Amino acid sequence: AFSMQAIQTFVRIRPWDPDKETASLSFSIDTNEVESPETENSLGYDRVFGPDITQAEVFVHVAPFLGDIFNGCNTTIFAYGQTNSGKTHTMLGPSGKLTLSPLQMGIIPRCARWIFSNINDLAKGCESDVQFQVRACFLEIYNGRVFDLLSNKGARTPLKIRAESAAGGTIDVQGATEIVVEATDSVMNVLATGSKQRATASTDMNLHSSRSHAIFTLYVEKRVREADSKGNSAGFKCHISRVNLVDLAGSEDVSRSHAAGARLKEAVSINSGLLQLHRVLGALGKGEAHVPYRDSALTRVLQDSLGGSARTVF
Ligand code: ADP
Ligand code: MG
User: Fold this and answer.
1) Which residue, judged by its Cα, is nearest atom 9 of ligand 1?
2) What sections of 10-136 are H helices per DSSP?
């Protein structure tokens, strides 16, 4: 049964840092409202998490969105906010570290653990009739171009986005590497490989990650043995779903940051990607017939995961 609202927005408020911040923010976790510091209006969200919330509690509220992954339903989870607001902390863990204690684990490792644990439960007792395979893909979008962070060629050559993604196709980005993962540890290894490639492309990793979108995808392929009318095996029926875990570029306001030259080009590209994402989600939310996926690399890469039966959490 599909009864959840297809697009939901959660706000997580990071602990206050008295060294860096002067203003405080007013919010209510009971009414799920946050007061805008600029307009002093309260805005309502699907959920507001206060600074004391743990990584585990965040995931409790994210996990229901994964519920239909074994039934062909795609999910996308975006982390959106300014640099230093806690996007990477929430998605991956403290300071983007890859060796994490179970308590520190962010949404990505918890999603992986959730998927593998559900596969174990589902496969129990029906090993020969149901088979699962999980594959990971890790892409980066920088200046409107898509890079494969798992390519063993090591070359930073941009990938082409397919003009029209083939119906039922799993990859809409041509040539993107997919790595078969068997457990949460192998997911962490894939994240480490991709992060290393991301870091070698830049002199300052924090700066680079605030200017590019990182899209980590887990594909879940489920193959169910089909029987003919006499009960004989008639091959497998295959369903593929994906969970996209997206750490977006920083949403800071370009007009106020006095960017110039290459920095300005980056900023314009980030903002048009975020603006286009806003438009696509707006059109989907209102049920409009035309959804402008094609206008940015970010929305094109995620196209088959945002509309249709997909669910999105911000
Ligand atoms: P972003 O990815 O949005 O730029 P980070 O996730 O890197 O921001 O967070 C900035 C800093 O604040 C990091 O040192 C991170 O560990 C810390 N931080 C963010 N959110 C939390 C939180 N909920 N609890 C404790 N520390 C946090
Ligand atoms: Mg970050």
Assistant:
1) 86
2) 55-62, 87-91, 107-123
